[in-house]
Amino acid sequence: MSQMPFGEELSARLEATRKTLASIEQTHLLDHAEQCSEESLEALLDQCDDIDLLAAHRFMLEAASSDYQAPPLESIRPARSIARHPDDEAALRTHGQKVIDDGKVAAFTVAGGQGTRLGWNGPKGSFPAAPLTGKPLFRLFAEQILAAGRRADRTIPWYIMTSPINDAETRAFFRDNNYFGLNRTDIFMFPQGVFPSYDDDGKFMLASPESIAVNPDGHGGSLRALRNSGAIEDMQSRGIEQISYFQVDNPSVRALDPLFLGLHLDAGRSSGEMSSKMIPKSSPGEKVGVFCSIDDRTCVIEYSDLPEELSAATDDSGALRFIAGSIAIHVLSVEFVDRITGRESNEGLPVHKAHKKVPSYLPSENRVVSPETPNATKLEMFIFDAIPLASRSLVYETDRVEEFAPIKNSEGVDSARSSHELQLERAARWLEAAGHGFPRSEDGSRLADVEISALTAMEPADLRSSPDVPETISAGDQLAI
Ligand code: UTP
What we know:
Layout lengths: L7 H16 L14 H13 L2 H13 L10 E3 L3 E2 L5 H13 L3 E6 L26 H16 L5 E5 L4 H10 L10 E5 L2 E3 L1 E2 L6 E3 L2 E2 L1 E3 L4 H8 L2 H8 L3 E6 L10 H8 L8 E7 L9 E5 L2 E5 L6 H4 L12 E10 H8 L10 E5 L3 E3 L4 E3 L6 E5 L12 E5 L2 H4 L12 H18 L15 E3 L26 E3 L1
Parallel strand pairs: 2-20, 3-4, 3-11, 4-5, 12-20, 21-22
Antiparallel strand pairs: 1-13, 6-10, 7-19, 8-9, 11-15, 12-15, 13-14, 16-19, 17-18
Helix pairs in contact: 1-2, 4-5, 4-9, 7-11
Uridine 5'-triphosphate binds next to loops.
């Protein structure tokens, strides 16, 4: 009898995992197990336990059998019935504010992305985003949640999705910043799931002797992560009914927007299941998903999947036909997320695949090989694929300067610089709307820079009698209030 290289417990775990892998024809992941140290093998088996390998395999088969097919062109129409400036705005706002006041709304930030385009050394939420103070994204959202909590006279819970890659760093960032003045117990952080990458033969790949090559499962993974982490149960126990969803890279987002909540709650005269915000696209090539209608159901088609014939099509007035750009701001009811992620549900989100270069560890050569051409498939899910699953869904048109200043790239379009410009312009508009003078040149450009904290104002009206606004703002001023 050959001698077991590991202790009894570890050997038993190894055998059990081999069995699971055999059922999905992936035992090659453990072919080198006997050459591993105990620590390495434990790490590898831990990861096998953490990843739901059977589910990952199912997703892989599903992706293989359902190559994304763009729907026939003639079936894609521009999204209809977009809410613009509702007549009953004041009533809707009051309704939305009431559900916040009643403690039925939570903020939810998805912050599990890898931020490769930005190239920031740390979680994206720690990126200095405010134009004058350099406050990081997480602080900007925390200030909004604090301010909204003060207005509602209660604490508002904040759910944050990280990824296994940035979870520890994100937690440390919050700890080091004393949770930005929020109660530790009102912040619920959880890592999203991952998908293993697989090679062109459908085999999962190793990243090192002790780890499988994986990637976060996309912002759409937030729905199953809300369930798997216990966040849904936590929400239910706190009486939360609505989730205000936003991405970590948009400092201008309204973390809790009473008007949007009011619209969502009144969608089709009964409460909506998932609502979305949109802005008119700035150009045919702008890299945002587009709201469309297929078979009378609202959906978003990712910019890379929308054929150019459609993205560039114009109407008689010369306006883009497919103009409704998604800015990834949603309200979802807890009941809806609970339903579509439930055990009995057949309504999972579809998986999208991308062929990418993935470095892989080859046990036979004991080294990591970095390919020169794409060698593997990565899977991910998109949050907007939940929209067609909602029985009632509303799209609300908002204004770019007011709500969308994304930081995606290190320079150029959607960079910190373009975001600062939008944030400063919004502050100037708010001051003007509140009746304060603001210096502008003849062509309308700003002659001063003002940054407004959410703790000072959540909307222009808050600036009217704010003691933080100086009597005059002069050309050349740089002011954080
Ligand atoms: P992006 O699509 O911009 O991706 O994410 P990214 O990973 O941040 O950046 P790149 O593409 O690598 O440069 C949009 C939002 O969705 C979140 C991101 O954190 C961001 O808030 N996201 C994305 C997740 O939470 N998980 C993911 O797996 C992907």
